[in-house]
């Protein structure tokens, strides 16, 4: 996580007095991540994560995210569970921001993705989609296809003209092929299941198993296959931007073992992958020029997603991307 909002010792102790989770022993800001401010807390009762919600999170939507996490955990999915205060409320205010404490998950996210991470990942994604089915409330994807043209417009003045022209053309092509509402199965999707949001533990033979999924603050109700497309973007490219089809096959086959994709989903997978590349390219580009000076955050490189977009633009069908 990043730390945009500093929390003083006194403010944190007063905040914790609202909970029955023991006395504060230590806390530290977490530099990873880009969206919200996060602190690791150690109390006399264990480890917790404190999140202060920033910029992109609409406070009115926080009950939905926290409710979804509670629902998924109740279905047996390992994910952070919001911790209620003594009054039963999990969502509170701290340092002028909405804030919540969640349970801490053990494990580490993979700094280098290996093929052996990919089958557990595909399986976990399918389990997440199945577990979400019983959660009745829906949330529109605020960074879905109709958000991309306005986002590109907001980058126009600061973007390199050649890049903006390429993105204009790519976006028009994506939108022309984008699946119509109702054409593909929908459900609650994570929408940001990058390696830094998936924790693993390894056995003595270095065989990874998933210990939990985190960071549900982009979760929404959208096409299930779009979540797969996001995962293929985030997990299957090497540092030289080569697509690793072995990783993609492992993800797709483990996912398909739990929920076989429909023929329409297979047909749409290439354009969904282009759309997912466009979405992360655009938010990264926007953040590149708009990150507040002095924020404790590492900006992410938008051009990594230009390479992915170009790769998927040449993928004629799902077979080219591991299907
Ligand atoms: N429930 C949790 N258990 C353990 N660590 C967590 C938990 N939630 C967040 N973290 C830590 O915070 C980091 C960033 O969290 P994340 O939710 O991805 O932030 P952001 O929304 O800002 O991207 C993670 O990489 C991890 O180190
Ligand atoms: N995954 C996104 C940025 C969101 O960051 P996260 O730390 O919340 O996963 C990207 O890589 O652009």
TrEMBL record:
InterPro entries: Aminoglycoside_PTrfase (IPR002575), Homoserine_kinase_II (IPR005280), Kinase-like_dom_sf (IPR011009), Pseudomonas-type_ThrB (IPR050249). It comes from the Bacteria. GO terms for molecular function: ATP binding; homoserine kinase activity. Pathway: Amino-acid biosynthesis; L-threonine biosynthesis; L-threonine from L-aspartate: step 4/5. GO terms for biological process: threonine biosynthetic process. Keywords: Amino-acid biosynthesis, ATP-binding, Kinase, Nucleotide-binding, Threonine biosynthesis, Transferase. SUPFAM superfamilies: Protein kinase-like (PK-like). The keyword Nucleotide-binding applies. It is an enzyme of class 2 (transferase). It catalyses: L-homoserine + ATP = O-phospho-L-homoserine + ADP + H(+). Residues 28-261 form the Aminoglycoside phosphotransferase domain. Its EC number is 2.7.1.39. Belongs to the pseudomonas-type ThrB family. This is Homoserine kinase.
């Amino acid at each position: 996580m990043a730390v945009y909002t500093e929390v003083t010792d006194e403010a944190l102790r007063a905040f914790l007095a609202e909970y029955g989770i023991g006395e504060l022993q230590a806390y530290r800001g977490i530099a990873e991540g880009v969206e919200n401010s996060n602190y690791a807390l150690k109390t006399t009762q264990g480890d917790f994560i404190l999140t202060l919600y920033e910029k992109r999170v609409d406070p009115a939507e926080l009950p939905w995210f926290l409710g979804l996490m509670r629902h998924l955990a109740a279905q047996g999915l390992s994910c952070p569970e919001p911790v209620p205060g003594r009054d039963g409320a999990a969502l509170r205010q701290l340092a002028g921001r909405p804030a919540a404490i969640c349970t801490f998950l053990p494990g580490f996210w993979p700094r280098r993705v290996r093929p052996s991470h990919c089958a557990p990942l595909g399986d976990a994604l399918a389990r997440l989609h199945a577990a979400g089915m019983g959660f009745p409330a829906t949330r529109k994807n605020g960074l879905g296809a109709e958000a991309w043209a306005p986002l590109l417009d907001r980058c126009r003045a600061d973007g390199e003209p050649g890049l903006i022209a390429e993105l204009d053309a790519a976006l028009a092509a994506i939108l022309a092929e984008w699946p119509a509402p109702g054409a593909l199965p929908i459900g609650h999707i994570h929408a940001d299941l990058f390696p830094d949001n998936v924790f693993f533990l390894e056995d003595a033979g270095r065989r990874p198993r998933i210990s939990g999924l985190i960071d549900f603050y982009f979760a929404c109700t959208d096409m299930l296959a779009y979540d797969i497309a996001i995962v293929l973007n985030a997990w299957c490219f090497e540092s030289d931007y080569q697509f690793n089809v072995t990783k993609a096959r492992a993800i797709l086959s483990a996912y398909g073992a739990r929920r076989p994709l429909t023929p329409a989903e297979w047909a749409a997978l290439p354009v969904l992958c282009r759309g997912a590349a466009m979405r992360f390219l655009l938010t990264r580009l926007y953040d590149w020029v708009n990150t507040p000076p002095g924020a404790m955050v590492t900006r992410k490189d938008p051009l990594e997603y230009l390479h992915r977009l170009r790769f998927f633009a040449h993928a004629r069908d799902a077979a080219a991307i591991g299907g």
